[in-house]
Amino acid sequence: MLKELHTVLPAADLKRAQAFYHDALDLDPAEVHQGTLTYRLDSGAAFEIYETSNAGTARNTQMGWITDDLDAEMTKLRARGVMFEDYDIPGMKTVNGVAAADDMKSAWFRDTEGNFICVSEML
């Protein structure tokens, strides 16, 4: 039976990725093993970052976070150097980095390895 879910992200440079997640997201790995960083969150969720030359090739959202206050989260992340993506595609247009729908608003940024990370607030 499936019991737990966690994300696995690629990194071309594991030390650079580790510095980004520490500096921008205030996260440090709980475990470091043979080219893999494992992050464990207070919620029980976890994600891994592993070193590979394939990093940065995906063009889709690879990890999503839920927050209670997207505006405050974006302000904090921008102060730490995070740049949010802007989109103007059929069905979605961001304003100041935020795409709004009836029940959610979301923003995307890329980590140093080119991974697309989404932060959403349920309305």
TrEMBL record:
InterPro entries assigned to the protein according to its UniProt record, in alphabetical order: Glyas_Bleomycin-R_OHBP_Dase (IPR029068), Glyas_Fos-R_dOase_dom (IPR004360), VOC_core (IPR037523)
UniProt xrefs under Pfam families: Glyoxalase (PF00903)
Domain VOC: 3-122
Source species, domain of life: Bacteria
Entry-linked PROSITE patterns: VOC
Protein name (Swiss-Prot/TrEMBL): VOC family protein
Organism whose genome encodes this protein: Cryobacterium fucosi
